[in-house]
Amino acid sequence: MFSGIVAAVGHIESVQPLEGGVRLTVDVRGLGLDDVAIGDSIANSGVCLTVVAIDGNRASFDVSRETLDCTVGLSQPGEVNLEKALRADDRLGGHIVTGHVDGVGEVLRFAPVGESHELVIRAPASLAGYIARKGSITVDGVSLTVNRVDGTDFSINLIPHTIAVTTLKRLTAGSHVNLEIDIIARYVERMLAWQTKDRH
After folding, report:
1. Per-residue DSSP letters for 161-187?
2. How far apart, in Å, are the Cα atoms of 143 and each of 10, 69, 136?
3. How many domains does the chain have?
4. Model confidence over 128-176: pLDDT tens digits?
5. Which pTM does this prediction carry?
6. If you compute the radius of gyration of the chain from its CA atoms, what whole number of angstroms results?
């Protein structure tokens, strides 16, 4: 479980093919590994991955083909947003994030508006019903608040701090991003569907 508050930006240094996926070696020096052990979870751009090896400031993760097929940003060297799994006594500064990506969105617009930036993303149609104005969504592992929704498109305001400490500064129109919907929306939909089923 995570909060969507990015702790550091790491760099995927190598992607080694495995029989059923790949092994990533990530430079995580800004995150710190003093309290991380093999078997612990670290979110990489919103994807919960298990540490399989540690070597100095580098951590390795095995990524299945299924995960690669439904996410972006893990198949080649590049920057990733990093967050360690929450402890029971940690502050929940963002919102409850599972690290299980629900789909991939496409950036339609990323442009400055005053001191901030407006980020407009087109979500897969299957996720649109879970995205609500003033609700929470995770974009590449970053907990963000939705400002506007128009069909499958939604808009987010990014403050300068978020731009400075995450990989979102690299986005351009046409970029693809990992999306995780608010887990509360998922459970509400399930409960309503079940209640409707019981009445029939």
Report:
1. HHHHHSGGGG--TT-EEEEEE-HHHHH
2. 18, 23, 7
3. 2
4. 999 999 999 999 999 999 999 999 999 999 999 999 999 999 999 999 9
5. 0.93
6. 17
Question: Does residue 145 fall inside a structural domain?
Answer: yes
Residue 2 lies in a domain: no
Q: Per DSSP, what are the bridge partners of residue 157?
A: 118
**Residues 123, 184, 116: CA angle, nearest 5 degrees:** 50
Which residues constitute the domain of residue 38? 8-84
Q: Within this chain, do residues 187 and 110 fall inside the same structural domain, yes or no? A: yes
135 close to 181: Cβ distance less than 8 angstroms: no
Q: Do 181 and 137 contact (CB within 8 A), yes or no?
A: yes
C-alpha 187/C-alpha 199 separation (Å) is: 19
Q: Check pLDDT > 80 for residue 197.
A: no
